[in-house]
Write a structure and sequence with these properties.
Elements: H1 2-53, E1 54-56, H2 75-79, E2 90-94, E3 97-98, E4 110-119, E5 125-132, H3 143-149, H4 153-157, H5 162-175, E6 192-196, H6 200-210
Parallel strand pairs: 1-6, 2-6
Antiparallel strand pairs: 2-4, 3-4, 4-5
Organism: Noctiluca scintillans (Sea sparkle)
Protein name: Exonuclease domain-containing protein
Domain Exonuclease: 93-179
Length: 211
């Protein structure tokens, strides 16, 4: 009788351990699935924002005009689009310079923020914005970085941080009536889009610092 009772207790504890283990495994699987779906949603949201507000131009020497009807067209097909079909009034062409060194560099901090605003109809530069930026995580520029970019330590030491420069950039946009949302577009509020020569400026330089 005692042996049977001990066997029942052992069986009961075994069932409890199996139940607890199964519950923990289920919760871990649900958490992993939720995190995966969240990261996927965040990535799609970033890609949607980038597609709406950024255009990457190939290195062709000419601006490829992007419209809803020719978004997937080749460069040769888009260069000669009629100006009346242009989706944006201005292309804000940016080309950030960042901290760097030979080999792997864990964090690229923006040290120069240049933007020229190209009129999509005349293809002429109507406005310019330029600021040097003081890095925070790695305030001392490497010799390689100075030789590569031509930016000196004195220039970044006397500059503002990126958060301040972004506010100044927003003030610049406001002073010229520039907007990035189509619903705000009007004759006095031209629509602009950020344009780069590749995904690095936004994806690898700006997004990580703003995140």
């Amino acid at each position: 009788m005692v042996a049977v009772s001990a066997r029942l207790r052992s069986h009961s504890w075994r069932k409890r351990w199996i139940y607890c283990g199964g519950t923990l495994f289920f919760l871990a699987a649900v958490r992993l699935l939720a995190m995966t779906l969240l990261r996927r949603w965040q990535r799609r949201k970033r890609e949607k924002l980038r597609d709406e507000h950024c255009v990457c131009f190939p290195s062709t020497g000419e601006l490829a005009k992007t419209t809803p009807s020719n978004r997937n067209a080749t460069v040769e097909e888009t260069v000669n689009v009629d100006a009346t079909q242009v989706s944006f009034d201005y292309y804000a062409v940016v080309d950030f310079e960042c901290t760097c060194d030979r080999g792997d560099w864990p964090l690229h901090e923006i040290i120069e923020f240049p933007a020229i605003f190209v009129n999509s109809r005349t293809r002429k530069v109507d406005m310019e914005f330029h600021r040097f930026v003081r890095p925070v995580e790695n305030p001392l520029l490497s010799r390689f970085c100075t030789e590569l970019t031509g930016i000196t330590q004195e220039q970044v030491d006397s500059a503002e941080t990126l958060s301040v420069v972004l506010e100044e950039f927003q003030d610049f946009l406001d002073s010229h009536g520039l907007v990035s949302k189509r619903r705000e577009r009007s004759d006095s509020s031209p629509l602009f889009v950020i344009a780069t020569d590749g995904p690095w400026d936004i994806r690898k330089f700006l997004w990580p610092e703003c995140g």
